[in-house]
Input
Amino acid sequence: MDLRDPTQLRKVYEANKRGLYNLAVRLVGDRQWAEDILQETFVRAYTRAETFKAGGKVSTWLYRICMNLSYDHLRARKYRAMASLDAPVTSTGDSDGATWSATLASSMPPAVAQVEQNDTEDCVRRLIDELPERERTVVLLRQYHGMTFKEIAEVLGLTARTVQNCLRRAKQKLFFGLKEAGLAPPQAEAPY
Amino acid sequence: MRPKPFSCKRTQKLLDDHVDGLLRTADSEGVRAHLEQCTPCDTEAAALRAATASLSVWGDLEPPPDCFEGILARIEALPPDLLESAPHSPALRLLRGGGRWVATSSVAAAAVVFLALSVTTPTEHDAPARTRHTNPVAAGLLSSTGPGLGLRTNGLRTNGLRTGEVRAYRVDDFLRNDGLRRGRTRNELPVSPASFGDALGAGAR
Ligand SMILES: [Zn+2]
Output
């Protein structure tokens, strides 16, 4: 595979754009940033093609790049929020320092935001937002990208066992959060 | 014939895949048989199911249709020196105009100055040198979609960014520089702390 070949780059883009874009949206909570991250993912893939290991899966490699860029974005946003305490930055109309659920809501057209304003969704987004980075990514890759523990482990550079533990912990937290908000189904008792 | 129930330990190991419907039938039946007779495991399975179900509220989005053209524009916009020394690229880009907000903050500016002094030298893994006009993807695809897509400003695409906004992850690219983590030989950028602020100020769009 040579991503410097235009036809191949396009093919790989078409096969992965949706998954990568949605991972970025869910991680950073902003469509515009997600588009930026998606584009930068492919620019990195292009300029750092030599970091792709022969025999590996292109999608796994791209997910790793996309995930790292998303984390970078979130950390830089934190720095920015920290810095704004020190020297307030003139508002640029974005929502740095806010949770991604808030930024996602604010980046949606009003009609969409209206429709999606329901308790469960808000609660789930907030709960995922509160998960540690690694647990959040594991949940997202598993739930929305249908990856096995082994595949997630390859993206994150962890063991499959660690990934499974992460997923379990994350879901336990989700369940507790739902329960606390009165949103867990009645038949599900707290087992922990 | 009724499947033989698995042990608690085996069930726990397979429970996530069971809840997500990823188990082979034989394993799934063994887990199910165990859950029928073990309240703690069954309760845990119900909680996992509830958590999993709650995640279905979140649908997929389509990336914008012109996104790929944006990628090509970015590739086209890569300066040759950036491709020659990939690890330096975040620093160079920041200096070229990405750092307005950094300049407003003493905390972040200090971090950037420190990092600018610590960027690694190019390694054997760096992308090979290319010039803008021989860039095969950009040349091939941009020409095939017609000349003058006009997606580029100052070598950086602005589509998707609000006015005055900066791709914040560039700063953190510094922090994540492989060389910093792995302790490779450090090398100075041709920028002194004193001139760094000026460079940011001059470059900021
Ligand atoms: Zn049991």
Summary: Chain A touches chain B through 80 residues (CB under 8 Å).
